[in-house]
UniProtKB/TrEMBL annotation:
Keywords, ordered alphabetically: Membrane, Transmembrane, Transmembrane helix, Transport
GO cellular component: plasma membrane
GO molecular function: sodium:proton antiporter activity
Membrane topology: Multi-pass membrane protein
The protein's name in its UniProt record: Bcr/CflA family drug resistance efflux transporter
Main location class: membrane
TM ranges: 42-62, 74-93, 99-120, 132-150, 162-181, 210-229, 241-264, 276-297, 303-321, 333-356, 368-386
Length: 400
């Protein structure tokens, strides 16, 4: 792999958006899929939830396997299975089969992404590692930017099935590229001993700042996922606009996430909790103004402008804490990567599905209420994280 190191680095970064791309490409087609399969919108939204749950659970357990068996072969097998599952979805009109294949997609993408995040911890240290990690959410956001636009166009021209044919081609293409240019990066495989693995997981789970960081990752990305599950129905059903319009709006939301990542990278030297507190305050003001405005005038512009700004702030929080969590345990990079991604997406899947049930996808006001819940929870978690940091720094006996 050393001969193709730069290409292998590029491939590792290029695979990061696959997790979002596998969902965002067919987000504009959700209403049409429901009509085509003669099911409700909520039943189609379950395809997103199943993907997120399986994506999260797979990462919880795949980390220790990656640290024992390596990243490369598991990644190759996962890409091939992902491509096959995508092809099956495109060929079937059975909702139960689609559910099963979405689970396969979630599991396989989880293994690929956890391995590629660990890839950089394997090869780099210090400022160069931080540089790559700070790029993660920026590069990841290219999926939500490109996928809805492509998906909306494919849905209009060929039908929703073409989105999954494209995913199958993308998976096959990456498999071939990995075979040609990539390789194993794990420097020192850790023997798989159940007791030792349990101790590693337990140590991470007892690290409060690590867990609170993961919770903040989940809350930040839940805002994006709730928009994905709500936005197309609001735009296409409530506002009576086209699927292509919904695709453009999702593209704008992906760009918002990227902007948040760039701002995070630019402010990397600022005091950590202070900048997160300022960011959360801005979000709170934005959502309160949004709730007032959409009560008076609900238009596509009012929906997109406020959602865009709120997503910028969510991307900012996510990028800050993703770097923090992935560098916390460099000697168990696979487990840390898997645990970070796994718990994050379990939080995302449960919160996004729960909030969409509580505030159905009918108008921008309900979307605003969903944002408000997540922003309030984010403020609460930041408070506990900051309090924990202060208590650890307090000198012994100071409390007396």
């Amino acid at each position: 792999m050393k001969r193709h190191q730069s290409i292998a680095n590029f491939l590792a970064l290029a695979l990061l958006p696959l997790s979002g791309f596998a969902t965002d490409i067919y987000v504009p087609a959700l209403p049409r899929m429901a009509e085509s399969l003669h099911v409700s919108g909520l039943q189609i939204q379950v395809t997103i939830t199943l993907y997120l749950v399986s994506y999260g659970i797979s990462q919880l357990f795949i980390g220790s396997v990656l640290d024992s068996l390596g990243r490369y072969r598991i990644g190759l097998a996962s890409l091939m299975l992902f491509s096959l599952a995508s092809l099956v979805i495109a060929l079937t009109h059975s909702l139960s089969v689609i559910y099963a294949m979405r689970i396969v997609q979630g599991v396989t993408v989880g293994a690929v992404i956890a391995g590629k995040r660990a890839y950089f911890v394997d090869l780099f240290t210090g400022d160069r590692l931080k540089h790559y990690l700070s790029l993660f959410s920026i590069i990841w956001s290219t999926g939500p930017i490109v996928a809805p636009f492509v998906g909306g166009w494919l849905q209009t021209a060929f039908g929703w099935e073409m989105n999954f044919y494209l995913l199958a081609v993308v998976g096959a293409g990456f498999t071939i590229a990995e075979l040609l240019f990539s390789g194993e990066t794990l420097p020192n495989p850790t023997p798989f001993r159940l007791g030792q693995v349990v101790n590693v997981y337990a140590g991470m789970l007892r690290t409060s700042e690590f867990i609170l960081g993961i919770v903040l990752l989940g809350l930040s990305y839940s805002m994006v996922m709730v928009y994905n599950m709500t936005g197309p129905f609001v735009i296409e059903h409530h506002l009576q606009l086209s699927v292509v319009t919904a695709g453009y709006c999702s593209l704008i939301m992906g760009f918002a996430w990227m902007v948040g990542g760039f701002i995070s990278k630019a402010t990397i030297g600022l005091p950590f909790f202070r900048k997160l507190l300022v960011n959360n305050t801005i979000q709170m003001v934005l959502v309160l103004v949004m709730l007032v405005c959409v009560r008076q005038v609900e238009t596509l512009s009012s929906l997109v402008i406020f959602a865009f700004l709120i997503h910028v702030c969510a991307g900012y929080t996510f990028n800050n804490y993703m770097t923090f969590c992935l560098t916390r345990f460099p000697h168990n990079a696979g487990v840390a990567s898997g645990l970070t991604g796994g718990v994050t997406f379990l939080i995302v899947s449960s919160l996004s599905y729960g909030i969409v049930n509580f505030f159905p996808a009918k108008d921008a006001l309900n979307l605003g209420y969903s944002y408000l819940v997540f922003i309030l929870l984010t403020a609460l978690v930041i408070f506990f994280a900051f309090r924990g940091m202060v208590s650890r720094r307090k000198p012994a006996g100071a409390a007396a």
